[in-house]
């Protein structure tokens, strides 16, 4: 299929409903955020096991804090892009039944998506690593200790050395095993469980579409693969939905 045929086919699948969206960092790059694994991504210039880990939080907090302040904290001027907005629109219209995301930026929710499952947690809310009580964004960014126990404040992300949230994993497993169409947006699909859920969907008979600038290891089993910008392709898909 050429580009136009792929957009028309995806439009047909989305209109049929029971769609699950799986998003990675490539979706948020169109809002101006860095991705992780490309040659210019965050991990190209930083060691995640050292900087985004429980060990760094507990033993090297200053470096941990500077990493999150400089690289990962989402400023207010970063807004959901057209891809986030189209996904939210499709959910509101009843076509998308859930979003599984590797992203921690909450741009899906800010765009209006409701049923969002965050595999890697999120930057908010801020909490104390020691006592678990809430803290403020301002105190975290200033490096202020927890006002309850004096412990280190942290975002609610899943750090290296921590387990992924069980409820999100269970919901993602249920969604991917029961959908009719599974759409990957901006994930390299090189790590688990990111590469499990698309396979799970295919095993249960779903159509698989992958929209990512670079090739992924699962392109060979996908029904639709698009190596173009996500916002532009979803905009074209949306256009053809209105024509059908």
UniProtKB/TrEMBL annotation:
It comes from Synergistes jonesii. One of its GO terms (molecular function) is metal ion binding. It comes from the Bacteria. PROSITE patterns: SIRTUIN. Keywords: Metal-binding, NAD, Transferase, Zinc. Residues 1-244 form the Deacetylase sirtuin-type domain. The keyword Metal-binding applies. NCBIfam families: PRK00481.1-3. InterPro entries: DHS-like_NAD/FAD-binding_dom, NAD-dep_sirtuin_deacylases, Sirtuin, Sirtuin_cat_small_dom_sf, Ssirtuin_cat_dom. The active site is at 120 (proton acceptor). This is protein acetyllysine N-acetyltransferase. Its EC number is 2.3.1.286. It is an enzyme of class 2 (transferase). Zn(2+) binds at residues 128, 131, 146, 149. It holds the Pfam family SIR2.
């Amino acid at each position: 299929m050429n580009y136009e045929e792929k957009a028309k086919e995806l439009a047909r699948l989305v209109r049929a409903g029971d769609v699950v969206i799986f998003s990675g960092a490539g979706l948020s790059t169109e809002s101006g955020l860095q991705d992780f694994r490309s040659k210019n991504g965050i991990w190209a210039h930083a060691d995640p096991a050292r900087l985004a880990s429980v060990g760094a939080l507990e033993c090297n907090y200053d470096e941990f804090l500077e990493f999150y302040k400089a690289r990962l904290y989402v400023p207010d001027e970063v807004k959901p892009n057209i891809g986030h907005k189209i996904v939210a629109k499709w959910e509101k219209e009843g076509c998308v039944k859930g979003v599984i995301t590797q992203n921690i930026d909450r741009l899906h929710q800010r765009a209006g998506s409701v049923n969002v499952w965050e595999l890697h947690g999120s930057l908010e809310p801020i909490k104390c690593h020691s006592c678990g009580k809430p803290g403020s964004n301002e105190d975290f960014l200033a490096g202020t200790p927890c006002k309850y126990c004096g412990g280190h404040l942290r975002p609610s992300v899943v750090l290296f050395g921590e387990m992924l949230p069980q409820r999100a994993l269970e919901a993602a497993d249920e969604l991917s095993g029961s959908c009719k169409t599974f759409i990957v947006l901006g994930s390299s699909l090189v790590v688990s469980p990111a590469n499990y859920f698309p396979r799970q969907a295919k095993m249960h008979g779903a159509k698989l579409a992958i929209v990512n600038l670079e090739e992924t290891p699962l392109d060979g089993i996908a029904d639709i693969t698009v190596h173009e910008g996500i916002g532009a392709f979803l905009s074209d898909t949306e256009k053809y939905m209105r024509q059908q």
